[in-house]
Amino acid sequence: MKFLSYKLLVPALAILAGSTISGCKPGKAGSSVDADAAQKVYVAPGKYDEVYAFLSGGFSGQVAAYGIPSGRLLKVIPVFSQNAENGYGYSEETKPMLNTSHGFVPWDDSHHPELSKTNGEDDGRWLFINGNNTPRIARINLATFKTVEILELPNIGGNHASPFCTENTEYVVGNTRFSEPLDNSNGDVPINSYKKNFKGAVSFVKVDKDKGAMNLAFQLIVPPFNYDLAHAGKGPSHDWIFFTCYNTEQANTLLEVNASQRDKDFIMAVNWKKAEELIAAGKGTKITAKYAHNVYNENTHTATSVMETGTQTLDVTKFPGLVYYLPCPKSPHGVDVTPDGEYMAASGKLAAVIPVFSFKKMLAAIDKKQYDGMIDGVLPVLKYEDVLHGEVKKPGLGPLHTEFDGKGYAYTTMFVSSEVVKWKIDNLEIIDRIPSYYSPGHLSVVGGDSKKPFGKYLLSLNKITKDRYLPTGPELAQACQLIDITGNKMKLLLDFPTIGEPHYAQMIPAEKILKNQVKFFKLEENKNAYATKSEKDTKVVRNGNRVDVYMTAIRSHLAPDNIEGIKIGDEVYVHVTNLEQDWDVPHGFAIKGANNAELLIMPGETCTLKWTPGLVGIVPYYCTDFCSALHQEMQGYFRVSPA
Ligand code: CUK
Ligand code: CUA
């Protein structure tokens, strides 16, 4: 995502890099690190990293897990995109995960990973992430690192301000980037009827306290702005969630000009507690809308997809007190709430200051009822001076996102001037700045958006890589930089490349995840309808032209290993159960010429590959994961005969 033209960027980058960035040689300025940097990121062979980092994959649609401080890639967790590496979205069990109201959509643009929270602290149970393009929210189980739920969101076009957890994960919340006509209205309208016919919708997804199951509880219908990002309150601001709005001009053409007219746009403060009460009191209006709800069950190892048909809504113009608007300079992008829940730091990407708002003052201003006008005649705009804690002056160019270290400091990325700026929350003074290479979007501090940040490390997630790595043709991996924030001055420790575009990351001390790790699935608990629990139960069952192969895999044998009687025109379903009961012994399964991916079956799991043989002859199959000294012996043959 680029907010400003590249022409604007080049001079700023060149100054900071101390060299021309179009050259092939590494920038010298960024190469200087303290002598102890290597020691600080060195994790000796056989040792674990201290922290997990979960980076969104942007246009890869996935999430990547890294170890910090080493920067070692641990796993790509498939979420919204098919992943041939482990058959996600290809196996019969996982295909339903990618169902939507538009059909099978095996890709998305994932921006914001969000860890579940208990009492405002990251609890290490689940990771939520948004699909921006075909609006969806996914939930990953951090005990198994598997995507276990994907919920589509109706009525919106671009689930960008999402998913942000309230303090106890009561809800994950999302809001639209692209306002559009609601799903129950006639969408066949002139685009220039934007102001009249388009709407925004804030989605509140209820999260089950124990199981994590998500359900769309209600949506708030809001004015047609572009809603960009959000963060929920905590502590005193527990009942509220804050969204940045740009394009409050409500332009629908030439947004790069027409959406930057006003000197100030808004933060929209939403009282979700009040909305919840109104819904509970039956004040909601049910509107029809079609959206998919996909759940992966880790006992049956199978996903199911259900199409939901409606949602409760509240039109905020009809319920006073649900939303207030705080003027915010200019085209705000991120809004971040301090660990104590008292201040909201916003980042107007075209603004020359970082405005910091006071929650206390916001409540006082609401009480006072002296407004700076109304949106749509009824939605109060509070006065800037009334709600402002203060402004961080001259922070740099293009402030985007802020996180906190729990010691009273905030860190903000500057997209245009390519730096991370450290400032003090109470007096808003700038303490330090460090160049980033180049153009950081989000940053992440360990626990940095929670009530109790762990601090220590900061990741700067950079949009432009240029000269940081050996060139790899026109496309370079995006860059991530690890910065030590233990001292007064920030120190660059390490660069490492990422998968796709890491918009945002969440970091959490490893111990919070380690304690829940599942090492294999218990075979006796495998409830997959096609599970085969011992080699003697393997079989081939024909029913018309459908053939079900009940297969097992164990070191070092696929059973059955010779299958005859398959005919052209058959639909063959190979259900492979991995009989291993040990950590880190997956088996793979691939068929010659199968117009599909492989399977990668975890110990105790059953996965199914569908195959429609196209040619008469002998067709080998084999295990794709080198699992033992006799891995190369894990093979078999189909015999395919004419119809
Ligand atoms: S966005 Cu990418 S830099 Cu989608 Cu959170 Cu700000
Ligand atoms: Cu099983 Cu290789």
From TrEMBL:
Q: Does the keyword Secreted apply?
A: no
Q: Where in the cell is it found?
A: Cell envelope
Gene source species: Mucilaginibacter ginsenosidivorans
Q: Which Pfam families match?
A: nos_propeller
Top EC category: oxidoreductase
Keywords per UniProt: Copper, Metal-binding, Oxidoreductase, Signal
The family database entries (InterPro entries) matched by this protein are listed as: Copper_CuA, Cupredoxin, N2O_reductase_N, Nitrous_oxide_Rdtase_Sec-dep, Nos_propeller, NosZ/Cyto_c_oxidase_sub2, WD40/YVTN_repeat-like_dom_sf
**GO MF terms, alphabetically ordered:** copper ion binding; nitrous-oxide reductase activity
Principal subcellular localisation of the protein? other
Enzyme Commission number(s): 1.7.2.4
Q: What is this protein called?
A: Sec-dependent nitrous-oxide reductase
UniProt signal peptide = 1-22
